[in-house]
Write a structure and sequence with these properties.
There is one protein chain. The protein has about 375 residues and is α+β, with helices and mostly antiparallel strands. It has three domains: about 70 residues, RNA-binding S4 domain (Structural Genomics Hypothetical 15.5 Kd Protein In mrcA-pckA Intergenic Region, Chain A); about 100 residues, Pseudouridine synthase (2-Layer Sandwich), CATH 3.30.2350.10; about 170 residues, Pseudouridine synthase, CATH 3.30.2350. The chain is built from eight helices and 19 strands. Helix 2 crosses helix 3 and helix 7 packs antiparallel against helix 8.
């Protein structure tokens, strides 16, 4: 990114959202988990409508915790009948007066095994759980990480309190943190909470109550106090494990707001808020404007030589950190079932805080040396 482009990206005005959002009166009744037989009737205005669309709207009208995807699965597995005849076609057109029967079976046990692992629980009720995830913990099982994940731990911790999210007893992951990013993460325990949280996180606080703020240590000094990066993200064309800024139309919209909180010599402490939630978004966007995260071996590899400019203690702290300096520090949202406004703040973890202290101590030492130099002159 050339200097002109970097300056443009950094100088765009930042509409900083307020620190808290007042709770709004609930406009709708909470979603209700369902199990067993349900019946619906197509009114004249539904004539010619697709079966899956009709059921999705009908379930929403009744405030039933049945997503369009879940209903599609029920149709395709033969658990929906129209006028007494089983149908497996989600696109089947309905006639006026058609009676639609849906059977929602009991939730199946998760294929993922529960594991007894320690969890830093910040909040929990029968609907959802908020945790402070340590760095190094993978959120969801995947190739190479079939066990030892947050989901494994939650299946064991929640046990029978998990509802049938998508027909399976499992925690509902609505947002993720990278393995080596620490901080706050919210997880649904019921289908109803999952749908509500998913809608909140999909909106990313544009119109809803969601607030997500991160703390990051980034290389370089910022020439303005705040700004945002608006640059679409997609897979790197040559390194498929990485994300990259791509041309418009080739990736997904991505917007990151940032505020420079503290200058620490060759490093800055930065607050970031997401307007979208793409994989590695903060890491890629800050690297894109010339300020990759400390310790980020994927997107900040070219900045390793900058560590030579740090004090000995700061270099040792950075080496001990061994990960990108990124922490999900603030999480706030309206409870999808009760309507209560929830707000949580996570202290910096020990490794991040140690690095920050070493950088501050180095700055104090530089200031003291400069003061002594002026005094002797």
């Amino acid at each position: 990114m050339n200097a002109k482009a970097k300056s443009r990206a950094a100088r765009r005005p930042l509409p900083i959202p307020p620190p808290a959002v007042a709770p709004k009166p609930a406009a709708q009744a909470p979603l209700v988990a369902v199990e067993g037989q349900l019946e619906f009737e197509a009114a004249p205005e539904h004539s010619g409508e697709r079966l899956d669309r009709f059921l999705g709207a009908a379930a929403a009208d009744r405030r039933l915790a049945l997503s369009r995807m879940r209903l599609k699965v029920l149709i395709e597995t033969g658990l929906v009948a129209v006028d007494g005849v089983e149908t497996r076609d989600p696109a089947k057109k309905l006639a006026s007066g058609s009676r639609v029967a849906v059977f929602a079976p009991p939730a199946e046990e998760a294929e993922v095994l529960g594991e007894d692992m320690p969890l830093a629980i910040v909040f929990e009720d029968e609907h959802l759980i908020v945790l402070d995830k340590p760095a190094g913990l993978v959120v969801h099982p995947a190739p190479g990480h079939a066990a030892g994940t947050l989901v494994n731990a939650l299946i064991r911790h929640c046990g029978e309190s998990l509802s049938g999210i998508g027909g399976v007893k499992r925690p509902g992951i609505v947002h993720r943190l990278d393995k080596d990013t620490s901080g706050l993460i919210a997880v649904a325990k019921t289908d109803a909470a999952h749908q509500g949280l998913a809608a909140l996180f999909a909106d990313h606080g544009r119109a809803g109550s969601l607030v997500r703020e991160y703390r990051a240590l980034a290389w370089g000094a910022f020439d303005v106090k705040a700004g945002f990066v608006d640059a679409p993200l997609g897979r790197h064309p040559h390194q498929r494990e990485k994300m990259a800024v791509v041309s418009p139309g080739a990736g997904r919209e991505a917007v990151t707001h940032w505020r420079a909180l503290e200058a620490l010599g060759p490093v800055s402490l930065v607050a970031c808020r997401l307007e979208t939630g793409r994989t590695h978004q903060i890491r890629v966007h800050l690297a894109h404007i010339g300020h990759p995260l400390l310790g980020d071996s994927v997107y900040g590899a070219g900045f390793k030589t900058k560590a030579a400019r740090l004090s000995q203690d700061a270099r040792a702290a950075l080496e001990a950190l061994g990960r990108q300096a990124l922490h999900a520090a603030i999480l706030g949202f309206e409870h999808p079932i009760t309507g209560e406004l929830l707000s949580f703040e996570s202290d910096l973890p020990r490794d991040f805080a140690r690095t920050l202290k070493a950088l501050r101590d180095a700055g104090d030492a530089r200031l003291e040396a400069l003061t002594n130099c002026h005094a002797s002159a």
